[in-house]
Design brief:
With 348 residues, the chain is an alpha/beta fold. It has two domains: 2-229, Alpha-Beta Complex (DHBP synthase); 250-344, Threonylcarbamoyl-AMP synthase, C-terminal domain (Rossmann fold). The chain is 32% helix and 19% strand. It contains twelve helices and 16 strands. It has helices at residues 13-21, 43-53, 74-85, 91-100, 117-120, 134-143, 163-170, 201-204, 216-223, 277-283, 298-313, 332-344; strands at 2-6, 25-28, 35-39, 62-64, 86-88, 105-111, 125-129, 147-148, 178-182, 194-197, 207-210, 228-229, 250-253, 269-273, 289-293, 319-322. The strands form two sheets. Strands 1, 2, 3, 4, 5, 6, 7, 8, 9, 10, 11 and 12 form a twelve-stranded mixed sheet that branches. A four-stranded parallel sheet has the order 13-16-14-15. Helix 1 (13-21) crosses helix 6. It is globular, with a radius of gyration of 20 Å. The mean pLDDT is 94.
Length: 348
């Protein structure tokens, strides 16, 4: 496989657009995670995404589009752009686009005829979002169309939040694909977008399929009315499988204040805690235990979660113990990712 990282200072937008038009894959930075991007209208390029990720072809991709330029009328722009990809654009989609795009919100709408089954996984719906990253926005505006871009990692594994993570993910992949990684720095949000289904809004209202850092309360503040959550919806969507975002090392969740001797026997483990770091270290002093402290701040934990899991996965532990998360709405997206990571972990 041919793979290269381009530092931000050396990035040439016209050259990248030409690569996209030629059917090549780019790893692009966004505010959430790095995406593995291809022309959303090029079926051969879309097939490369599935091959490189080892992703089931019935697992849909998200189309990334550009935002309006400063001088453009927002409502007219969103109506026009969303209608390129969707056969039915409800007014709620326009309102949410104006409120949250560019940003970590994906809208599920009824697809238009032009959208390939390789994007939708054979469904009649399509996911669309606008990433909040200057470099990727420049590429999208210069390209003038949509990029399909799932996370730039092997299917089910930990999503990448830096260019180096993408390189590590695919460095040993044996295949014919070439990959250009754009180094846009560390992702500022750190976990994937909220996915909101509007394709059945007249029947069931707006439904969150995957929680993210844009919460039900945020959406309610724009739309009013009930916003429900159904992470087991019949609509297939990115990140919807039970075992996802997962390290190869066994990962469990347990309140670190209740750890007991059996949790440590007889193996090398890493423990992530929100508790009193010094007290826990003194109570469980052992060369077989490494301790990692996290502050009880949802934004900070989201930003660092995948990088931390990748680091722990590379340290040769037999087990990772992750402290239980707070049970309020601000942590729901992180809890979703951690639950799926736990379910899929330990598979070598």
């Amino acid at each position: 496989m041919s793979i290269r990282i381009i530092p931000k200072a050396e990035i040439n937008i016209p050259e990248l657009v030409e690569l996209i038009q030629q059917g090549h894959l780019l790893a692009i930075p966004t505010e959430t995670v790095y995406g593995l991007a291809a022309n959303a209208s090029d079926e051969e390029a879309l097939k490369k995404i599935y091959r490189l990720k080892n992703r089931p072809e019935n697992h849909p991709l998200i189309i990334h589009i550009a935002p309006p330029r400063m001088e453009e009328d927002q409502s007219a722009f969103w109506e026009r752009e969303l209608s390129r990809w969707s056969s039915d654009v409800p007014p709620q989609a326009i309102a949410l686009a104006e409120a949250f795009w560019p940003g970590p919100l994906t809208l599920i709408l009824k697809k238009s005829r032009q959208v390939s089954d390789f994007v939708t996984g054979g469904q009649n719906t399509v996911g669309i979002r606008v990433p909040r990253h200057d470099l990727t926005i420049q590429i999208l505006q210069a390209f003038g169309s949509g990029l399909a871009a799932p996370s730039a990692n092997r299917f089910g594994r930990i999503s990448p939040t830096s260019a180096q993570h993408v390189l590590e993910e695919f460095l040993n992949f044996m295949g014919d694909e070439s990959l250009t990684i754009l180094d846009g720095g560390q992702c500022e949000v750190g976990i994937e977008s909220t996915i909101l289904d509007l394709s059945r809004i007249d029947e069931v209202g707006p439904v969150i399929l995957r929680p993210g850092m844009i919460t039900a309360e945020d959406i309610f503040s724009v739309l009013g009315g009930e916003v429900s959550t159904n992470t087991h919806s019949e609509i297939r969507h990115s990140g919807g499988v039970l075992g996802h975002y997962a390290p190869q090392t066994l990962l469990i969740s347990k309140e670190t204040e209740t750890l007991c001797t059996n949790d440590f026997m007889p193996q090398k483990i890493g423990v992530v805690t929100f508790g009193n770091f010094k007290e826990l270290q003194d109570k469980w002093s052992s060369q077989l235990v490494d301790w990692y402290f996290l502050p009880k701040d949802a934004d900070t934990v989201a930003r660092s979660l995948y990088g931390l899991l990748r680091d722990l996965d590379n340290r040769g532990y037999q087990k990772i113990i992750f402290d239980q998360l707070p049970q309020d709405l601000a942590w729901s997206a992180i809890q979703d990712r951690l639950t799926r990571a736990i379910y899929g972990s330990g598979q070598h």
